[in-house]
Every structure is written in C-alpha cells, then in structure tokens.
Specification:
The complex is a heterohexamer, with three copies of chain A (115 residues) and three copies of chain B (443 residues). Chain A is built from two helices and seven strands; from the N terminus they run βαββββαββ. Chain A is of the alpha+beta class and 115 residues long. A four-stranded antiparallel sheet of chain A has the order 2-5-1-6. In chain A, strand 3 and strand 4 (49-51) form a beta hairpin. By secondary structure, chain B is mostly helical. Classes of the chains: A alpha+beta (115), B mainly alpha (443). At the B-C interface, helix 1, helix 2, helix 7, helix 8 and helix 9 of B face helix 2, helix 3, strand 4, helix 4 and helix 15 of C. The complex binds adenosine-5'-diphosphate (ADP) (3 copies). One adenosine-5'-diphosphate sits between chains F (7, 35-39, 56, 58, 90, 92-93) and E (27-29, 62-64, 104, 106, 115).
C-alpha cells in the first residue's frame, strides 16, 4: 500500500476530486497548506502594489491507496491539473510514501481491504 | 410615502402657525426634529450596505467572498454618482415623456436644491440622499441572484443601466407626486417604503438575471456551503437596525407615523424570524441560524410596503405569512433547480409581493376612512386590493422585461457572465487580485 | 427613568406654552426632536443585540459559535412577540394583583396606543418599542452564564417564561409610575436605565442558572479558549455605541438629561476599560484585549443605573470601581470553580450592584435638594443608600428565587441542559445543523 | 465649524423669537431637534472607532490583529479620560499663554457645564463629548503608520502626550472662537470637520513616527499580506456611516448646513471609491476591494474640511482628485520604501491636504459673498487659498516637529518601538497574551 | 519507529486525546482536514435544503511513535472513537507509516528517545 | 529520497524559512497544526486567568528532499530554532520518512530531479 501526498493549486481542487472519483478513488483527505516553490504564483495587489506572495495558498490531498491504484491516482491528478494550466509555472507535486498498515476505525478491518 | 403627506401637511401647518407671527414664511422653516431623524435614517439605511455585504458575503464560497461583498459596496459608488447626475431628477422631477420618468434640470448635480426646504421642514438635500440609499440598495439586492458567477465589470455596467432605466422610472411612478401609481385608486397604491420599487423589482430582476446568466458551473451537483455564517448572522443584525431608517425614515417626518412604522417593522421582523425557525424545526428538525436570518429578512421585506398602514396585530400576521410563503418558494426553487443563488427572488421578490398584496387586509381604519372620503363615499378593501395587485403586476412586468432587455443588449458588448476560469479560480482572485481570509493559511 | 419626569414635564409645559395659542391641546403635541432621538435610541439599543452576539459568540469554542449568537438573536424574536402580546401590558399597565405586575387590555397587541402621544411629546409606540429592547437584551445577557451547554428549545422556553414572570414584574416595580420601588423613599429607588431591572436581574438569574445546570462537561480540566477575540472586541465596540441609546435614550427626551446621561456613559466606559488593563497589567503583566472589552462592559453596566444623577467626576470613579470589583469577582469565581461561562454574573450582576449602590455617593446636588423638599425637609445620602440597597436586595432575591423555580419546573417538561452528545458535537451541529466558519476547511 | 455660527445664530434667533413671549430666556432654551442630531452624531462618530479597528486590524498579519485593533480601542479609553480632565479645557477654554492653548478651570472634569446650553440650543455636554470623539479618533489614525512594531505601553503614553501637546492646541487654534486660525483672513481658515486638526495632523504625525521608529524588521523584503480583507471592507462601511456624524454633526445643528454636509460627504466618498477602482483597473488591471475601501477613505478625508462650503459638483471633483493624488502618493511611498504601514500619511495626510487646499475652488457663492462683506468689499478665491495654505502649513509644521520632539523625549523613558522578540512573536502574543483567531487551529 | 496519521471525526478529538494520554502518549499534532469518503456525514441544512457536504470536516492526528507504542495508540484511538458512534457510518482511518528518524529540536537528541 | 515533517513554533516560521533558503532548499509546504507536548507553551490570559493551552498552535513544514540534502535541511532547522529560544522548553520535532517517488505535475518528471 502507498500513501500519496499531492500538493495542488488551490483552485484545481474540484477538477482533481472529480478526476479521482472517475478513477474510482472516492476516499481522500484535503487540507490547506501554504507553499513556497518556483511556481509563478498568481499575484495579488494591495494599494497599487503588486505582491508576489512568498507563501502561496495550495491544497494538500492525502490518499491511502492499494498499489494497483497508485498509477491510476497519479494519472488522474496529472491530467486534471494539466487543464487550465493558463501558463503558470508549477502546479505542485505528488509524493508517494510507503504505507505499512491501515485500520478502518468503523470496522477494525486492517490492510488493503480497509483502504 | 403617501401617509407622510398627511402628516407633513399637518406639521407644516403647525410650524407655520407657530411661526407665521415671526415672518411671512416664503418657504417652510426647518423642523430640526424631523431633520434630525431624516439625517439619522439616511445613515441607518447606508448601514444596510455593509450589512447586506456581510449577509451575502458570508453565504458564498470563500473564494468569492470579497467579490460578493464588492457587489454591495460598488453599488454604493456607482449609484450615488448616478443619482446625483440624473437619478434624482428622473425619479422626482416633473413627469416627461408621458410620465415614463421625470426630469428637471434643477436637479442635475442637485444644483437647484442647495437651500430648498420641503414641507415638513426637511431640507430637500436629505430627502434626495435618503432616496439615493434606496437606489443603492436595490441593485445590491439583485446581486444575490447571480452571486459567484458575474464579472465585476459586467455587474457595474448592469446596475448602472438598470438603475437608470428600471429603478428611476419605477420610483417615479410610485413615489413622485405625479407618478401614475401614486395616484391610482382612492389614495394610490400603498407602498410605504419600497415593497414594489425596491424589493419586488429587485427580486424579479434577480430572477430574470439568474435565468439569463444560467447557474454556476458546479450547480447543483456540487454542494456549496456558506463560508461564514457568523458574518451572515451579524449582517442580518445590521440589516434589522438599518431597516428602522428604511421604514421609519420613509415617513419623512419625526412623529406618529414614524413611530408606527418603526413599531410594525420591529414586530414583523420578529414574527418572521420566529415563524422560520418554527417551520424549519417542524420540517427539518433543526432551527438554523441562516433560517432565523432569512425569516428576519422575509418579515422586514413584507412589512416594508405596509409599514405605514398596518397595526401591530397585522404586522405579526404579515411577517409570519411572508416567511411561510418565502420558505415554500425556496423549497420549490430547490425542486425546480434554477440557481437563484442567495434567493434574491425567493425572499425579496416573494416577500415583497406578499407584503404589498396582503397588507390590504390589515389597513388601519382611519386610512380606509380617508380613502373613502377621497373616493367620494366608499372605498372597499377589495378595491384597494385591485390597486395593489395592479401595482405589483406593473412592477413585475416592467422590471422583468426591462431587465431581460438590458441583459440581452449589454451582453452584446460586455461578457456579463464570469469566464469559466474566473468562476473556477474565484472572483476574488480573478477580478480583484485578493483573497478574503489571509489568516487561514500561514503567512 | 425618574429624572426624565422632571424634564418631560418641563418640556411639555414649554411645548404647551408655545402652542397653546394654536389649539386647546387635547393631547400633548409631538416633540419632533425628542421623537427623533427616541427613534434613534431604539435603533441603537437594537444594535446591542448583534453587538452582544458578537461579544459572546467570539468567546466560546468554534463548535458553539452560532448557537451562542442565536441566544442573542432568538431573544430578539421571542421577546418582541411576547412584549406585544403581554409584556408591555404587564410592565406598564396599572398595577393588579397588589402590584405584582400591571395589566391593561388596551395594551394587548398595543391596540390601545395607536395614536397616543405621551407627555414629552413622544408617541407611546416608541416608548413601548424602546422598552421592548430592554426586555430583549436582558435574557440575552443571561445566556452568557450557561453558554455552550443549553438546548436551544430549552433556552427559548426559559427566556419566554423568565421574561413573563421575572422581567415584567421587576420592570413594573421599578419603572411603572405605580411600581412600589418607583415610589420608595423620597424620590424612589434610582435606576435610570436598568441597573436593577436589566443587569442585576440578568446577572443573578445567570448565576442561578449556571449552578442549576452545572458546568460544561470539560470544565475546568480542559482549557477552553475564545474562537474569535477579534469579533468579541468588535462586538464590545457596537455595545458601547448601542449603550448611548440605552442610557441617553432612557431620559425619554432630547435635552439636558439625555446629554448628561450620554456624557457619563462615555466617561464611565472609558474609565472602566482603562482600569481593567491597568489592574491586569499589574496583576498579570499583560493588558489583554478581552480585559479591555470587559472593562468597557463593567463601566457601562455600573453607570447604567446612575447615568441620570452622577457627574463626570463620579462617572470616572464609578467606572473604575466597578471594574476593580468585577475583576475581583472573576478571580474569586475562578477559585471557586463554578462555571459562569462568560461571566454574566461576574460582570453584569456585580457591576450592576456596584453601580446601583455606590451611585449614592456621587448624586448631583440638585437631585438631593429636590429629594429633600419632596421628603419634606431633609434627605441624606444614607437614607438614599438604604433605598438603593433595598431595591437591589429585592431584585436579587426575586430574580434568584424566581429563576430557580422556573428552571426547576420547566426542567420537568423540557431538558434544558444540552444532551451529552450535543455538548460534545457542538450546539451548531446538533441544534442548528450548521457550522459557523465554513472557510476554515477546504470546501 | 465656522459655517455653523451663521446657522446657529439664526436658529437661536428663531427659537428666541418663538419663545421670547414665554420667558426672558436667561440662557438659550433647548432645541430638542438639534440636540437629538448631536446625540446621534456623537454615537456615530464613536462607531468609527470599531470601524477603524476593523479597517486597520484586517490589514496587518494575523499575529498582530488584536494589537492593532487595541490601538484604536485604547485611544477610546486614554483620550476620553484625558479629555474630561484637561482636553476640553485646553481646546475650548479661553486662550492662555498667548493663545497656545486655552484653559478654564470650569472645564476641569467638565464641572462647570453641567447645565449649560449653548446657542443653538444644544447642551454643552454634547458638544464636549462630540469633540471628545475627534480627540479619540485622531491618535487612533496615527497608529496606522507604525502598525505591527510599537509597544503597547509606549503607544499609550505617546497618544496621551500627543493628545495634550499637539491635538489640543491645534484644535484650539482652528475651532475655538478665539483661536488664531479661526480668525485668519475674512472668515477664517475653512476646516469644517477636521481636515487640518484631525487628518493632516494625524497623517503628518504618523509619517514622522514611522520614520522615527523605522520599518518593520521584515520590511520590505518579506511580503506582508492582510489577514482579513473581509473585515477591512466591513470596517470601511462602518467608517462611512460614522462619517455622517463626523461631518454632518460638525454643523452643531440639525438643519440646512447639516444636510449640505451629509450630502457632499456621501457624494465625495462615492466619487473617491469609484475613482480608485478605475485608476487601479487601468494601472493594474484589477479593481481591488482594498482599493475601493481606500478610495472611500480618501474621498471622506478630502471632503471633511470642505463639507460646509462645497456643493455636490465640487464634492465629486474633490473626492476623485483626492483619490488620484493619494494613489500617487502611495505609489511614490512604495518606491521610496519607508514603512508607513497602513498609509496613515498616504491617505489621511495627503487626502486632508488636498481637501483643505482645493476646496477653495468649489466654495458656495453665498459663502464668498459673506466673506467679501466681512472683508469689507472683496474677498477672492486666491486670498482664501492663501489662508488655507497658511493653515495647512502651520498644522503640518506644528504636528511634524511636535511629534518628533515627543517621540525623541519619550523614547528616553520608554522603548516605544516593540522589542525584536515582540515583533517576531507578534504583538498579540507578546503584549496582550492572546490570539485573535482561535478558530483557525483545532482547539 | 512509526508515524501514525489518524483521521477522525471532528467532534471526537477530545475523547481521542484523553484516551491517548491515558495510554501514555502525550505528544501529538492535530490539524483540520476535510474528508471525502463513504461515511454518512452529519448533514447540514441551508434554507430548508438538506446538504450532504461532499467534503466533511475531520480532524487529522499525527503521532510519531516507538514500535512498542503503536498498538497501544491504535487501540486507544479505536476504542475512543467507538463511543458515541450514534449509528453514523465511517469514523475515519488510521494510517501507519514507517519512520526512519526523529530529531528533538530542543536537545538534538535523535532516534527512539527523541520521540 | 526523504520526506521531512518538521513541527516548529508558530513564531519561528520566518527564521526557519530563511535558513532553509540559505541552505538551498526553496521548496516547502507549510500548514497550521495544534500540538500537544511537553513544551512549556506561551501562556494566554483570559479575564485574569492564566490559561496554559492544552493544544498549542504550531507550524508544520513538509519537505521532500534528496538524500544528500537531508542533513543540510535538518541542521538549518535546528539552528534556526535555536535562536530566540527564550527559555521555553520544547520547540518541536523533525520527522524523517522514506519517500519512494515524486512527480512534478508541471512536467511529469519523476524521481530525484523532480524534487
Ligand atoms: N520538495 C517539496 N517539498 C514540499 N513541498 C513542495 C516541494 N516541491 C513543491 N512543493 C509544493 O508544491 C508547490 C508547487 O511547487 P513548485 O515549485 O511550483 O513546483 P515545481 O517543482 O513544479 O516548480 C509549492 O508551493 C509547494 O507547496
Ligand atoms: N484511503 C483514504 N485516504 C485518505 N483519507 C481517507 C481514506 N479513507 C478514509 N479517509 C478519511 O477518513 C474519513 C472517513 O472515511 P470513510 O470513508 O467514512 O471511512 P470508511 O472507510 O470507514 O467508510 C474520510 O472523510 C477521509 O477524510
Ligand atoms: N511524537 C510526536 N508526534 C507528533 N507530534 C509531536 C511529537 N512530539 C512533539 N510533537 C509536536 O511538537 C511540538 C513540541 O513538542 P514538545 O513535547 O515540546 O517537544 P519535546 O519533545 O522537545 O518536549 C508539540 O506541540 C507537537 O505538536
């Protein structure tokens, strides 16, 4: 099993979620992060001054997956974030970590079937 | 604003009497009390704009909160300037073009009223500014119908044109002394503080606009939840406070009719709010804060046209009734599935109609009596009902058709609907280059 | 509201004089100025409700923010309706049942006062609505004592019954011209704007309720921190503004006594706030924003009964004194460990008592002089002190016992205390099916 | 506050006329209407404090939100107390020390004005409290210049001393009947509601303080973004409402001049806001909410000195002009890189100067006519321009130098600048021991 | 050493925390996440319309543990979340990841004793 | 490759970020967490009562790194948090997890060069 952490643009959450659902992955956890990277972030303007935030608001998606689903998930995310690229550099990352065990609290099931 | 005539006349008579000994009053002298209350009302009505911005702003998704609040605020900018340039003149100048609207070069830039005192002892400036607030808030109400999907530029141009072509004429018909609805029937169509002019017109226009622009991309398959109900609730509180200026100020005096208006306003709002939570409690088992706030609005909207003529008992019924029907209207909307995002029609349109029509059953006897005399003999509730229905239908038709035409034509020049990308990235980021809640992400 | 008599009489005398030439005044004519100020005050006092909602709402945990704000808002609904139905009548009708409370069928649905003008030239409607706001805010204050653990339904029924059985009688005793506390001693117990009626009764009832319902599940071993002090601070600001209506409006006129009340209100609030941050600074080394806000409240509460009789110097002392004692009271509370969650007693109860009692040392000479004449010869500070203490004790006893009885009986029919689950999941989710801050989680 | 003289005289004449028959007025009788409006204005101006707190508070980083709001709130505490003790006396007592400031033992603790009614029929208490609000808001405005890096204690002492040594004298010169700027030229320097006294002095002092204290540690290399623009926008709304009290209240009456002031206030604010979003739209392609709010302020600031003398047309130009120049000033600031954090100078200083100077081109003819007669024959715009420029220069010089001296001396005793650690950990945590937004982290 | 990520119901945080402390685990990090899963989430109601949010607010708990503590921790969480189940499907997951190294910033200690 | 999770004091974010950038690590993701530990947290005061929060606000930094950068990163963080220690116990932790794969969404690059 793998544990995927994907950092995406704030405004691509909906697309990504739909893409994942289409790929049969319905269980995810989403949170807010601020990112710092090379990405040309969408500027903000305050009192006539352009501010390139040094921490951009991004979305962090966490998914526990069985191995056979990993590629599906990654491709789903990659394709979903391709859309509306509107020329901005950088649209985040996917990190794949090893996952040793999962427990479904509701049923105490463990391992792959608990994902 | 009909009732006020009676009392302003009285007032000015009085003031003249008390002072005629002093000088030959070439123009009525100031009634410092009435003036004080009108100054205050004007400020209170302005308070409704931030109030509305909070109310609407809290209901959309975080990415659109600033854009939505700006719909209210920018109306404050656009409409004020327009009002000074042509609005006041079109609304309250003597009828031209067969009464379509009014015009008086005196009112251009308000240049002619620099020292005018109206009967009732109020400087005309205040009346003009008080009315300006109504012209501001009406388009701001419309914005609720197409929240989260309108381009800022498109919106600004829309409300400008809408204000000129829809609001000003309607206002003229209903409130100008030579407006034709003002003189309909025995004592005219009753619209004390803007049931038809403000709420019905805004609600209907909103509905038309919502249909014209279509629903949000994700509507209804993605559930969209309020970003800040705390703010929405607070906004409802400010609206309630501001509404005292809205209604009690519409008496254009500081006396009995103001007191009556304020009283029924308070009562109807409370009744509406209670009714909503009770209905919801029975229907869904929860008494929501948003429901309470919506009930406040429904009650306030319904009492707006009626504030001058109904008594407390009537106010309770009217408030509760409006809430009931608005609740129904929204349930129906959800079934039909069109995207009147913040229920501009569901609450302001429906509530306004309910108020404007059902008020006839609660009219103060004294009012009916005078109506009868004016009508020469008799004037029944049913006749007045006819008058009210006519007024409502005219407002609905004019606002509805007019709005559609405006949108249709304007859309040829400016894309009113926000671009796909703007809608996805959010109005705040795309049109305003800002984010509303910086504190949420580490920064 | 005693002082106002003097000045309203003067005013009406005046108005009559200036106008008697005009007609034989069958009823006093409108004083448009006084009316304007009373209309405004009524609106300002209503502003205190959102203000209080923000103040309290910001202090609880996020999961209860809406539920807590709804405690203030729902009072606006429940109490207004009740006031129209029976409250005004019970409070200001002629005494019945040996003066327990008043009643006048005229006041049912306010039907009898549709055109009444009071001496002072104010439509009775406004007086009634102004008073209604007091009936709204009092139970809303109580809610602070048992925040985060009361069922919404239970709360609504509680305030309804409490308003009828506790507030209305108290209000009658202290403010109705035939109330027995109104006629105690030479010039009656001094309670200009509600020290006993509003704050002491609310504070004491809150304390009783807090003890009756018991502490929150996690109190005190889990530290519970405010979810939004920014909102709390803003709420305190709105409360300050609203309090001008609360106090200066209680003069029921627009003249000297209003000015005096407004002045000491401003001063006492400032003195209270300063005192709190200084004390806190010395005691804890930090000057907290919540402390500043609490000091504002303590000062305002203390000056409420006194606003009509003390001068600026006295206001400073009274404000600072109240803050000192409230601060102490809260320290003691924390030691004793009972769960008066938002210090309804610690600030409103204690502050009200301090104000109602210590005001005697700062009474305007003119007032004492008149008191002496009325008392036929002499009237000392100590005699007045006796009167004040009596009034306070009566209020404390009546509110305390009464509240306990109400809770005890009511609890037999409805569980007032929130269920374990409701408390754990939060009032917002469980009773209202909403969340206050949608923006915090991605949505 | 010059204009008001004319109208108060008229008013009192009138009142006397109508009532002289009644008694030999030893002191002017109350004008309940004017009193009502002044009571209301006083409350409205107080509303500007929470408004300002929200406006400023939303613009800083989350860790400083409470500290920044406390800058506004604590001014409410400190300045009120000082005003009662010595401020009112220094500002409006008869000149001493060759007119540097005034003094009258009567005004100590306001003891001497307990029953005074001013011409115009307003209790002096209200005038004193109304003025107190100006003394509160001015230092609160300064705080914007050195936000996020000042120690709370240092700030409190600074505003106390600043109020005594800078504000009171300035106020005396401009508004006291024996102030030398009040009597400059034909009809004095025009400063209706505080362009020089409030905004210019605050802006300039802010600039000096910002330079004296130096920029924030991370300025400018770390981008610092607003924590809550939603609150900032709401605050701007409250400021707009409060400004009606600020300007229309400065007529010290409830009549024509109040109406004129209110009207131009509304118009200038709208024009300013529109201008800002348009300029920004052209310059940056985005119409920001913060820009709109800043435009509102720029317009309001510019109209403040002019509210009594310009007409609607002029108000539009003045509002737009002020916005344009303020926008420029801020662009320049960003180039120069000094850290006037929230643009206290960029908006209040610059806007105030623009208003105070350019108003001469839009003065109402009637005013100029009277000026001519007073000047004995002729009085040209250019002469008035001279007067205005003089007044502005004096205000700039006095406030600038004075502030520098105060800071220099005070800094010897108390570290005004926040410690490195305080700045890093945030004012909220370090000075107030609190956090503003508890809801953001699970708790 | 293991790194545990537990996603639980928003309103069970207090129970879970107390359970963990009883199990001798006093060091945790908690954050807000929005989850999407099979769970029948507690509905919300807006203007008479029942909304089943497609992203439910959950709580995310992160715990670095020595191996011998892992079971304790899991059991503590499982039991704590059993309570107040009130019939709602799904109360989240526990993910167990391998943890290679820990550093206590205060003391620079590394490895198991730094947990 | 490694995946670093660092929990630090809320108010040390700026220092840490600058230190990391100096160490050549410019890509990070930051989020809010509430922590419970042994740390003597900065107290808060409410109405004259000192509150020692049982959940302190901390900052969570997530960094995906190539192995050779791990020590650099850790040292940077350690040194940055040493500063302004102002006697408070506990300033968090660094957790180092194994990272199997990274994908740069923008370019589909995988592995070390995508970090
Ligand atoms: N090595 C990393 N560790 C943690 N977060 C990262 C890392 N690289 C990228 N991110 C996150 O992804 C977001 C986009 O990063 P960016 O630098 O634009 O990606 P790219 O590598 O394509 O340039 C950043 O804001 C950051 O939040
Ligand atoms: N595979 C997963 N990856 C990430 N988060 C998950 C996963 N499964 C569950 N969650 C989180 O746990 C919460 C509960 O999930 P749910 O589907 O109800 O659990 P169950 O598997 O018991 O149905 C979800 O809202 C989500 O936040
Ligand atoms: N084992 C752990 N698992 C998860 N988070 C931890 C752990 N240890 C520490 N933390 C986080 O680091 C912060 C500081 O912890 P603390 O106990 O002060 O560290 P120390 O171990 O130096 O005492 C805590 O608030 C918590 O958020």
């Amino acid at each position: 099993m793998k544990f995927i952490v994907a950092i995406i643009r704030e405004n691509q959450l909906d697309q990504v979620r739909e893409a994942l659902i289409d790929a049969g992955i319905s269980r995810i956890s989403v949170s807010n992060v601020s990112g710092h990277g090379r990405q040309a972030t969408t500027e903000e303007i305050y009192r006539g001054q352009i501010v390139v935030p040094n921490l951009t608001a991004n979305i962090r998606i966490e998914i526990g997956l069985n191995d056979e689903f990993v590629d599906k998930a990654c491709n789903a995310i990659i394709n979903a974030t391709k859309a509306n690229e509107n020329g901005l550099v950088g649209s985040g990352k996917i990190f794949i970590l090893p996952l040793e065990e999962v427990i479904r609290l509701r049923t105490d099931e463990r391992g792959p079937k608990a994902i | 604003m009909k009732i006020l005539l009676r009392c302003t006349l009285l007032l000015c008579a009085l003031t003249l009497l008390t002072t005629s000994t002093v000088w030959a009053a070439d123009q009525p002298i100031i009634d410092s009390g009435a003036t004080a209350w009108m100054l205050t009302s004007t400020a209170f009505v302005l308070l409704m704009i931030p109030g509305l911005a909070m109310f609407y702003g809290g209901l959309v998704r975080s990415k659109n909160v600033l854009g939505t609040m700006m719909h209210s605020f920018s109306a404050m900018g656009v409409m004020t300037v327009l009002w000074v340039v042509c609005g006041y003149s079109m609304a309250f100048g003597p009828s031209i073009l067969g009464g379509w609207f009014g015009w008086s070069s005196d009112y251009f830039m308000l240049s002619g009223i620099d020292e005018t005192i109206m009967e009732g002892g109020i400087p005309e400036y205040i009346f003009s500014m008080f009315q300006a607030k109504f012209a501001i808030i009406t388009p701001a109400l419309i914005a609720g119908a197409f929240a989260e999907r309108v381009s800022f530029k498109g919106y600004c141009f829309f409300i400008a044109i809408w204000g000129i072509l829809i609001y000003n004429p309607l206002c003229h018909w209903v409130w100008a002394s030579d407006g034709f609805l003002f003189n309909l029937g025995a004592r005219g169509a009753i619209d004390f503080a803007g049931g038809t002019v403000v709420h019905i017109s805004a609600g209907v226009s909103g509905l038309v606009a919502a249909l014209f622009l279509g629903g949000r991309k994700a509507h209804p398959h993605l559930q969209m939840r309020p970003n800040n109900l705390v703010m929405t609730l607070t906004g409802a509180g400010l609206l309630w406070v501001g509404w005292f200026g809205f209604n009690a100020g519409s008496s254009l005096s500081s006396g009995l009719s103001s007191a009556q208006a304020l009283t029924v306003t308070q009562i109807a709002a409370a009744a509406g709010a209670m009714a909503w939570v009770i209905i919801e409690g029975l229907h869904q088992g929860k008494a929501t804060a948003l429901g309470f706030a919506s009930g406040i609005l429904a009650g306030l909207v319904a009492i707006t046209p009626a504030a001058g003529v109904v008594k407390p008992g009537g106010a309770i019924v009217l408030g509760a009734l409006a809430t009931g029907i608005c609740y129904l209207a929204i349930v129906v909307k959800n079934k039909m599935g069109y995207d009147d995002t913040l229920d501009a029609f569901g609450i302001h349109g429906v509530g306004g109609i309910v108020g404007a029509i059902f008020l006839v059953f609660f009219i103060r006897d004294s009012w009916m009596a005078e109506a009868s005399t004016l009508a020469g003999g008799s004037w029944t509730v049913w006749q007045q009902l006819g008058v009210q229905v006519t007024a409502v239908l005219i407002a609905v038709a004019y606002a509805g058709v007019g709005t559609w035409v405006i949108l249709f034509v304007l859309n040829k020049f400016i894309k009113i609907r926000a671009s796909e990308e703007a809608e996805m990235r959010g109005l705040d980021n795309h049109y305003h280059g800002e984010r509303g809640y910086g504190m949420i992400n580490p920064h």
